[in-house]
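testing teh design pipeline on a random one, pls ignore if ur not involved
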C-alpha cells in the first residue's frame, strides 16, 4: 500500500514538473538599471521623483527557449530607454518613451528579429517607440547563490555596460529602505542591487550617461 502511494506521488510530481517545463517556453537571466534608486526610503525617493529616473537599461540572457518559433538559446538582447518622467511614478505618465535595442551580434537575421520581438513583448509600452536597433557582442554574466541570482555584469559592445553588487549594511542610509519601485517587467525572481556601473554611450536617445554607486538595479530571472 505504501509502495503504491509512493509511486503515485512520484507520478504526480513528474506530471507537475512536465507541465511547468511546458509552460516555461523561454527562460533566463535579467538585469535592469534605472537612473533613480529603486531600493530606497520615501525621503530619498521624493527627492528624485520628477527630476530623474527617466532612463533605464534592461537586459535579458536566454538560457533556453524560443520566441515566435525561433530558438534563442544562449543569446542576449539589451534595451536602453529614455522616458518622459520617472519610471514607476504612479502620478505621472512616462510614455511615450524612446528606446534603442541592442541585439546579440552572433544571432542570425531570424534570431535578431525574434530578439527584438521578445524584448518588446516583455517590456510593452516602454519599447513601443524604438529609435534604432544595433547589433553588438553582448557579454552578460550573473552569479547564482542558492538558486537565486546575485551579482551581475553586462557589456554590450561599446554601447552599454552594467556592473552590480549586492546591497550591504552600508547602503542603508535612512534606515527604512525597501524596494520602492518594482522591476519594469514581469520576472520570476528579482533582487534589488547597487549599480556599481550604469552606462550608455550610444546614439538614438539624445542622451548618454555614466552613473556609479546607485541603489538602482535589479538582478533577476524570467520565465515565460
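output:
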Amino acid at each position: 500500500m505504501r509502495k503504491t502511494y509512493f509511486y503515485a506521488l512520484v507520478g504526480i510530481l513528474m506530471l507537475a514538473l512536465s507541465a511547468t517545463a511546458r509552460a516555461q517556453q523561454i527562460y533566463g537571466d535579467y538585469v535592469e538599471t534605472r537612473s533613480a534608486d529603486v531600493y530606497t526610503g520615501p525621503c530619498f525617493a521624493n527627492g528624485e521623483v520628477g527630476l530623474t529616473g527617466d532612463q533605464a537599461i534592461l537586459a535579458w540572457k536566454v538560457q533556453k527557449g524560443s520566441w515566435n518559433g525561433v530558438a534563442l538559446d544562449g543569446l542576449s538582447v539589451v534595451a536602453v530607454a529614455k522616458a518622459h518622467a520617472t519610471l514607476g511614478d504612479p502620478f505621472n505618465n512616462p510614455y511615450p518613451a524612446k528606446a534603442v535595442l541592442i541585439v546579440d551580434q552572433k544571432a542570425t537575421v531570424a534570431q535578431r528579429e525574434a530578439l527584438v520581438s521578445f524584448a518588446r513583448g516583455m517590456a510593452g509600452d516602454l519599447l513601443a517607440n524604438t529609435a534604432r536597433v544595433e547589433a553588438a557582442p553582448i557579454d552578460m554574466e550573473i552569479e547564482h547563490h542558492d538558486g537565486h541570482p546575485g551579482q551581475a555584469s553586462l557589456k554590450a559592445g561599446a554601447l552599454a555596460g552594467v556592473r552590480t553588487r549586492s546591497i550591504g549594511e552600508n547602503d542603508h542610509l535612512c534606515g527604512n529602505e525597501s524596494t520602492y519601485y518594482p522591476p519594469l517587467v514581469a520576472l520570476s525572481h528579482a533582487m534589488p542591487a547597487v549599480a556599481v556601473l550604469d552606462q550608455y554611450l550610444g546614439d538614438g536617445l539624445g542622451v548618454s550617461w555614466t552613473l556609479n554607486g546607485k541603489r538602482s538595479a535589479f538582478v533577476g530571472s524570467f520565465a515565460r
